[in-house]
Amino acid sequence: MSTVVTLFLQRLRRDRLQMLIWIVGIGLLVEFSVSAVKQSYGDVAGRQNILELAVANPSILMLRGTPEGSGLDQFIFFDIFTFIAVLVGLMSTFLAVRHSRAEEESGRAELLAATPAGRTLPTVVTVAYGAVANLVVGLVVALAFVAGGLDVAGSFVAGSATAAVGLSFLAFGLFAAQLMRTSRGANGVAAAAVMAAYAVRGIGDALGTPSADHLHTTVAWWSWISPIGWAQQTLAYDKNTLTPLLLSLAFTAVLLVLVFSLQSQRDSGASLLAGRPGRMDARGSLSSSTSLAWRLQWPTVVGWCAGSAFAGILTGTLAHAVAGAADADPNMEKIMASLIPGGKGSLVQLFISAIFVMVGILAAACATQVIIRMRQEEVAGTAEQVLATPVSRNRWLTGYLAVGAASIILVLLSGAITSSVSALAVGDASARIGDSFAAAAAQLPAALVYLTVLALVFVALPGWTIGLSWTLLGLGTVFGLFGGLVGMPDWLRDLSPFTHSPVPVGTSTDWSGGIWMLCIAVAVGAVAVASMRRRELNSA
Amino acid sequence: MNTVIEARGLEKRFGRIRALDGLDLAVNAGEVHGFLGPNGAGKSTTIRVLLGLARTSGGSATVFGQDPWKDATTLHQRIAYVPGDVSLWPNLSGGEAIDLLSRLRGGTDNKAAYAARKARLIEAFQLDPSKKGRSYSKGNRQKVALVAAFASPADAYILDEPTSGLDPLMEGVFNQEIRRAASEGGTVLLSSHILSEVEQLCDRVSIIRAGKTVESGTLAELRHLTRTEVSFARNGLTEADLSRIPTIHDLALVNGRAQFTVDSDNVSPVLRALTDLDVKGLRVAPPSLEELFLRHYGDEILPAEASSAELPGRKARRRAASKVAGAR
């Protein structure tokens, strides 16, 4: 028994900060969403309008879920529950893989397996620990809803549904850890399962049959094969039924039986699916430090491009609906205009621009990861081996800058192309193509500023690169994107590159901000490359 | 003789820590030079300076007569390097890493010759090149770096504790490759704290401690520093008999044998005296570098000193990380 306690406390000790951030973060997200919904959709009539729009538009149902009544509580559940479910799902899969496959891969599991704890007990403790973590998350979500003034019984149903999603994916994460040889592979499979569960229930919700008053929906069967779908079907604040969660528990139980039977059969460190062997020789293209940087980075770039493509599809398909909604609700135009500084133009153009600001942030985030990769190479010592060959430090850095710039362009293009194609697919005017590409091009300078400024940080303050990169991106996003909404002073907003991105709406677009940022990006990049000549390798 | 690597009064400070404190090093063309010192003596830091990965805080260093910091890229065309703590790209296979590093060095211009060398080395080191970098053990990561270093000929090989993860069989392969490299005219700087490998391979050695060179020369030149150990069966010899042997130190009688040490340049008169005593079961052991090392560090170096001079980088943190992991 004391072994169990020791292992449990060890997990807690290791994760305390990480789990605190997840749990508090999810709690705060609920809290903020509740107050935001209250503020924007305080009256029943407004909510009913939105819900009718939603029910008529499958892509909203796909993103959010199905509305179940026009009360404030029900509206909030409709608005945010699927997002919370995805977050809790990811939290649980990462937790599961972190304490199973990652431990085996690093060899730490072997240390433990050689003690009386054995091979299986650590997994049992991980299940217990993950279950406790999910119960806490469920409780925090329930209390956050209650604190927001929502119905108590419904809040606890929502909390239970949240915990059930977490448990399902805890089990799935452990299952993925049995399948895959590496923690990277297991995390990938498990996170993909979370996204698939979200997408599958999205299809079911979108294909559902709305009731006569448009306030309820009978979902299609797709929603009933997804752990997130089961949790939605508790219909919190409406029917408040916990029965669908039995499916979640059964799903969890079956997976856990599989996990333990697989684990008891296999060697420590082995996996059901063998790791793929690599190439004996390198492709001819892998012959420079720049091609190495691309080789290391492209999977990440593909990930950001997928995110951007998702945003692009949204833009293309929703732009049409927005145009219709604008005729019905003049308020919409005001909300859109407040999102885009100085934006005057057609509502559809504003909408496209608003979404492409997000795509621009994705592009900047992708560039940020390129710089972080460079720093990771330096810390790991692999950069040292490259720089001990006839590759100069500044050429090495320039290679990463080139990969960063290419990544930015790819992410933006991915958004622009999918937006254009999906607009054409829903029969929208081909004018959207120009709007999409203009909106994407407008985001290029700000993302390039991030790339080169962070490269300069890497050169001047190497030890700060990773922390400062995400901080600067986060602050830039908050100042630039939400600064206008919460009334931040102009000078604070002006610190963010995103504030200065051109807004290509209407007939005369002011591109000067973009041109200035391009100049700044090039100048800062040149300084970074020149200073790299004088910088030592610094792995500390 | 042509000096390939030369360092004079090399200094390197990391904040308050002096990693190098006036280090001298001279490596001649075509020789295999042992670079010896305990952990944290500054071996890796010196190597990083010689590769232009770190800048000196004082003193001078040249490689092939050029400044390793300023002329890094031209110099690196002639140098193969194996780091002490090899890390590989987790998602590149060993074979890919070898090809990449060789191509970056420009050593694959003659494709057929390169492919043949690579195949021979992979065979000799019994390396599986299709595994991903993340799944290699320490020894296999080292083999990847060694194959990459030897797969294309270089004028100079800078090897930082290259055998620390290899088993004895692989050490033999490594020794062969070093001899091959030297016979092709390469100059080798081989850092180590394992004395036996240096003893087998090196023409000359430099011994450093706390960032300073304490000894440098051929092994023969350094042997005067240690005493030869002599022992034989006592066979009823009295203390008085034994005391007639001239210039001996540390006489002791252990398990029916007499043993003592003698200055290595003063063995002949001792042998004459031993002949007179008609001793049986005589054993005369030449000093090993182990002893040489012990004499330099064994009685003076403190554990704290060893760790404080450690390069405050990857190695130190790795070690700390592995301690934490081990404690779990």
From TrEMBL, chain A:
**Membrane-spanning parts:** 20-37, 75-97, 127-150, 156-177, 189-207, 242-262, 301-326, 346-367, 397-417, 437-461, 468-491, 511-530
Nucleotide-binding keyword on record: no
Q: What is this protein called?
A: Uncharacterized protein
* Alphabetical UniProt keywords: Membrane, Transmembrane, Transmembrane helix
Look up keyword Iron-sulfur and say if it applies. no
Q: Which organism is it from?
A: Arthrobacter terricola
